TrEMBL record:
EC supergroup of this enzyme: hydrolase
Cofactor: Zn(2+)
Active site location: 56 (proton donor)
Organism from which the protein derives: Thermocrinis albus (strain DSM 14484 / JCM 11386 / HI 11/12)
Protein name, per record: tRNA-specific adenosine deaminase
GO biological process terms on file: tRNA wobble adenosine to inosine editing
Cross-referenced InterPro entries: APOBEC/CMP_deaminase_Zn-bd (IPR016192), CMP_dCMP_dom (IPR002125), Cytidine_deaminase-like (IPR016193), tRNA_aden_deaminase (IPR028883)
Upper taxonomic lineage: Bacteria, Pseudomonadati, Aquificota, Aquificia, Aquificales
Catalytic activity: adenosine(34) in tRNA + H2O + H(+) = inosine(34) in tRNA + NH4(+)
Binding-site residues, Zn(2+): 54, 84, 87
Coiled-coil annotated spans: none
Free-text comment on the cofactor: Binds 1 zinc ion per subunit.
Domain CMP/dCMP-type deaminase: 3-130
Length: 156
C-alpha cells in the first residue's frame, strides 16, 4: 500500500470494525479533502432502520454538512467495500473527485465487479476510481457473514 493512503485506509478500517461490533455489515468510509479527513462513517442500516444508511451515503452527508457545500469537489472517498449502484451514483451526484475501495463486491459492486457505473460517459460528472486491495477489509466481511450464518453477528 502506498504510504500516502495508509492513514485513510486505517481510518476507514476502524469504521468498518465499529460496524462489525454493532452487528452491521462491516463497511467503513472516510472523506478526505486537502490531505485531511473531513468525515467518517460506517454502515448503520440496522440501527437507523434505513436501507440507504450505507457508509458512503452517511459520510457524504457529513462531509457536505461540514463544508457547508452542495458538492464535494476536491474530495477523495475511501471505503472498505466496492460501492453498490446506489452509492456509486451518489458519488457522481456529490461530485466526488475519486473513490478508493479496498475490497471487491462480486455480487453487488457497481464500479468494476458487476457494473461499471463510474466509467459511464452519459453522466454529467466522472468519478475517478482505484481498487487498492487490503486483505483486512475482505477478511472482516467474510468473518461477518460467517458469524451471521452461525448466529454470532458482531462477534469476532
Amino acid at each position: 500500500m502506498k504510504d500516502s493512503h495508509e492513514p485513510f485506509v486505517k481510518a476507514c478500517l476502524l469504521e468498518a470494525h465499529r460496524a462489525f461490533r454493532k452487528g452491521e455489515i462491516p463497511v467503513g468510509c472516510v472523506v478526505v479533502k486537502e490531505g485531511r479527513i473531513i468525515a467518517r462513517a460506517h454502515n448503520r442500516t440496522i440501527a437507523l432502520k434505513d436501507p440507504t444508511a450505507h457508509a458512503e451515503i452517511l459520510a457524504i452527508r457529513k462531509a457536505l454538512k461540514k463544508l457547508g457545500e452542495s458538492f464535494l469537489y476536491g474530495c477523495t472517498l475511501y471505503v472498505t467495500l466496492e460501492p453498490c449502484a446506489m452509492c456509486a451514483y451518489a458519488l457522481v451526484l456529490a461530485r466526488v473527485d475519486k473513490v478508493i475501495f479496498l475490497a471487491q463486491d462480486e455480487k453487488l459492486g457497481a464500479v468494476m465487479s458487476l457494473y461499471n457505473l463510474l466509467d459511464e460517459t452519459a453522466f454529467n460528472h466522472r468519478v475517478r476510481w482505484e481498487f487498492l486491495p487490503v486483505e483486512e477489509a475482505g477478511r472482516l466481511l467474510r468473518d461477518f457473514f460467517k458469524n451471521l450464518r452461525h448466529g454470532k453477528a458482531g462477534e469476532g
